[in-house]
Specification:
The chain has 658 residues and is an alpha/beta fold. The chain has 32 helices and nine strands. It comes from Nocardia bovistercoris.
């Protein structure tokens, strides 16, 4: 049944009220400068975000402007029953001084009486935690100069109606949440355990209600331990114990209970561990086996009730919401595991389809996996890259879940299939994290060929990070794991490039020449073109330029699009021409390469070309052009997180322009 509390006396102000001053200033201005007649202000926001405290603070600030006082109603429970709404109206009429014998019995008569009694008055009617528009309609005062103030437990109030203004209580920031916690447990205690305090506000999602609940637990913990915040943080962190510290149903239970059944199905999906805190209509549809357009409507319902946050075409899921979803999910574990499996399959199909578009000629997929085709999911490579970029966080979480579940082959597969994307976009943190799991997964499944491929890929990541010793070690490990000639050749290629970048030119020539020999034994035209190209990097200009001509001809003869590799050949041809002081010809090649890499969004390659063009401009004493090119390179390196390369370019720029 509905529980309702009505009182002509407004609750006291919350002494720990924080961080919503901008909202309050706007709300006060709106109410006091609004048109004559009744007004409606709706305060909405996520569960536990501080809507009630904000409403109470607002009424205390404007109450003196409403001569007939205020009515306060606090709602919880089932508000949909007609008898419940009638009971609320009886409370309201009693509070307004109507004698009991004059309060009607019929619902329609109750509403008419309430509107008549409140007409021509200047009241604040504060409805806290409404879950039904019928509550709002029933308690809307009669014509006058009153304010109907509504805080919503779920999205119910029509905000497009005349005279209705919506204000959203945003989550506290971390600093404000720490002040709230300090107000509960004491600033000295928060200062003494600052790291634990920060962890607690994060584990509480910076929600005032959660902080209030946890704060009382900290004060109790202080009676038995000298480090109550650290003790509480440990208990909150452990999902098996957090219920003893924080009842998430107190925070989210009302909002969940007000959802439609389809939206509840969606809500239970939020508790899956393999989505990483981001879901989309297509991913949830794959889990539920429902049409995507229907799922979109259910997700909108969750977003309207502030249980998830809309971001473009996806939705963010707070950790507390995910935990609550798991808490209230009473289904058998096998059902949840089946949903996790469907979500992993969703990611796998799209990762495979993206790889088909991004790197169709890489040999490792054919070598390692029997199912070489992903169902067509994307129109082109650009759309595939956009999807992969948006799903980075999800894929990492899904890989961690798959690893913990012992699905070694899937983790290895994703390491291989995602490498072209990570390589081009230089998402090296993603690559390294995934490969730590993947290499262990390959060992666990005794798949030495796969382990070798992952060490090969890891070597290139270390190479891009300019960790040349680590790169050489990874390539050497790959060579020792298998006698597969394609893998060994690629590992010698990487080893030679690492040696060249480290300044060991003689060893680089040995490794890259050996790679070329293996490529000719394999007798694959594309591999030969690549091997000749890489060997040219380590050779003197007179030897390198004919090799680059051979490589250019080899790529040009292939039936697939090799535009980017042809641009790389031009880049190195420009470098070798510059070594021979053929500056004008070098600049032509470099500019052509830069044009292609800009169109193809090859950011790293753009930065490398700009650096060489800057050096050439410096040799010509064109310091303005040199500085401009260096600035381009520095910006790109910094954006990619390649701070070492950015600093090197910055130092060279400063040296030239002194």
């Amino acid at each position: 049944m509905l529980e309702t509390r009505s009182n002509l006396l407004l609750p006291e102000r919350n002494s720990r009220f924080e961080n919503h001053e901008r909202l309050l200033v706007a709300a006060v201005e709106h109410v006091l400068t609004g048109a004559a007649g009744n007004q409606t202000v709706v305060i909405t926001g996520g569960p536990g975000a501080g809507k009630t405290a904000t409403g109470v603070e607002l009424v205390h600030r404007i109450g003196r402007h409403f001569s007939d006082g205020s009515l306060f109603f606090e709602f919880s429970g089932d508000a949909e029953q007609p008898e419940s709404i009638s009971q609320v109206l009886r409370w309201a009429l009693a509070e307004l001084g109507v004698p009991a014998e004059e309060i009607p019995d019929l619902p329609s008569a109750l509403r008419s009486k309430y509107r008549a009694v409140t007409a021509d008055k200047s009241l604040i009617v504060f409805l806290d935690g409404v879950v039904s528009d019928s509550q709002v309609r029933a308690l809307r005062p009669g014509p006058g100069a009153s304010l109907l103030l509504v805080t919503e437990a779920r999205a119910v109030t029509p905000v497009d109606a005349e005279g209705v203004r919506l204000f959203v209580v945003e989550p506290l920031d971390e600093a404000a949440a720490l002040r709230v916690l300090a107000g509960i447990v004491g600033a000295d205690r928060v200062g003494a355990e600052s790291a634990a305090a920060v962890e607690i506000v994060r584990l509480c999602g910076c929600l005032p209600l959660a902080l209030s609940i946890v704060g009382s637990m900290i004060r109790r913990a202080a009676l038995r331990t000298r480090a109550p915040l650290a003790d509480t943080a440990t208990r909150l962190r452990d999902e098996r114990r957090h219920r003893s510290v924080l009842s998430l149903n107190m925070v989210f239970g009302a909002a969940y209970g007000a959802l439609t059944e389809p939206a509840r199905r969606c809500y239970r999906v939020l508790g899956l561990r393999s989505h990483g805190g981001v879901v989309s209509p297509s991913s949830v549809a794959a889990v539920l086996g429902a049409p995507e357009y229907e799922v979109e409507e259910w997700l909108i319902e969750l977003a309207d009730n502030h249980l998830i946050q809309a971001t473009d075409d996806r939705y963010g899921v707070r950790e507390l919401v995910a935990r609550h979803s798991r808490d209230i999910d009473e289904r058998a574990s096998s059902e949840r595991e089946a949903e996790e499996a469907r979500l992993l399959r969703y990611y796998d199909e799209r990762i495979a389809a993206a790889d088909e578009l991004l790197a169709p000629l890489r040999p490792w997929r054919r070598l390692l996996f029997s199912d070489n085709g992903g169902a067509p999911r994307f129109f082109d490579a650009g759309q595939a890259r956009t999807w992969l970029s948006a799903e980075r966080r999800c894929v990492r979480a899904a890989a961690e879940y798959a690893f913990d579940a012992g699905q070694w082959d899937l983790v290895v597969r994703w390491c291989v299939l995602l490498w072209p994307f990570h390589e081009k976009e230089k998402f090296l943190d993603d690559l390294l994290d995934l490969h730590r799991l993947g290499i262990e997964a390959a060992r666990n499944s005794a798949n030495t060929l796969a382990e070798g491929v992952l060490h090969l890929q890891l070597g290139f990541a270390r190479y891009w990070l300019r960790e040349f010793d680590s790169a050489a070690s990874a390539f050497t490990t790959a060579i020792g794991l298998t006698d597969n000639i394609e893998l060994v050749a690629s590992a010698y290629e990487g080893l030679g490039l690492a040696q060249l970048a480290a300044g060991d030119i003689e060893q680089a020539r040995i490794s890259l020449r050996h790679n070329e020999q293996l490529a000719r034994r394999i007798d694959d035209p594309r591999r030969i073109a690549l091997a000749v190209f890489h060997r040219a990097k380590a050779e003197a200009a007179d030897i390198a330029l004919p090799l680059l001509e051979e490589s250019f001809a080899g790529f040009s003869a292939l039936s697939v699009d090799e535009t980017e590799n042809l641009a790389k050949v031009r880049y190195w041809r420009g470098r070798k021409l510059a070594e021979r002081d053929e500056i004008d010809s070098a600049v032509v090649e470099l500019e052509l390469a830069l044009e292609v890499m800009s169109v193809r969004r090859r950011s790293f390659d753009q930065a490398e070309i700009c650096t060489v063009l800057a050096e050439i401009a410096g040799r010509r004493a064109d310091l303005g052009a040199a500085s401009a090119r260096f600035e381009q390179a520095i910006a790109i390196y910094a954006n990619l997180g390649l701070d070492d390369l950015a600093n090197r370019a910055r130092e060279e720029c400063e040296r030239l322009t002194r």
